[in-house]
Amino acid sequence: MTSVTLSVSEEVKTELKQFQWVNWSEVAREEITKKLIFENYIRTGTLTDKEWEFCKKIGWHPVDELPLKEEFRKELEKRKKEKSIRVKSVSDIFKNIK
């Protein structure tokens, strides 16, 4: 396995020391892997079995990083402006449905 050294400021180093229980190498390894998977997903639109297993393990998917589509964002904004109905119970929701 190859070793990589990162340079950080003294301030960051001091901050990191406050979390001695954190395996910073594992954090960096995971973030690098996510970046590589994301770039591959953008390029191909698919995940390998190995990438999929990694994603399942950490509860993440490259789609999580994609920005919202403009039409979806507009629909959300439109719905925010709509008048909402207050109900006291779940049965009230279905009361007027026939």
Description:
The chain is an all-alpha fold and 98 residues long. It has one domain. Helices cover 57% and strands 0% of the residues. The chain contains 5 helices and no strands. The protein has helices at 10-17, 24-44, 49-58, 70-81, 90-94. It is elongated and about 65 Å long. It starts with 9 loop residues before the first helix and ends with a helix. The mean pLDDT is 91.
Task: Describe this structure in a few short sentences.
The chain is built from 5 helices and no strands. It has 98 residues and is mostly helical. The protein has one domain (10-94).
List the defining traits of the structure above.
mainly alpha, 98 residues
How many structural domains does the protein architecture include? 1
| Helix and strand element order | HHHHH
What is the 3D shape? elongated
User: Mind telling me the C-alpha Rg?
Assistant: 22 Å
Strand content: under 5%
Uncertain segments of ≥5 residues (pLDDT<50)?
none
Helical element count? 5
Q: How far apart are the first and last residues' alpha carbons, in Å?
A: 66 Å
> How many DSSP-defined strands?
0
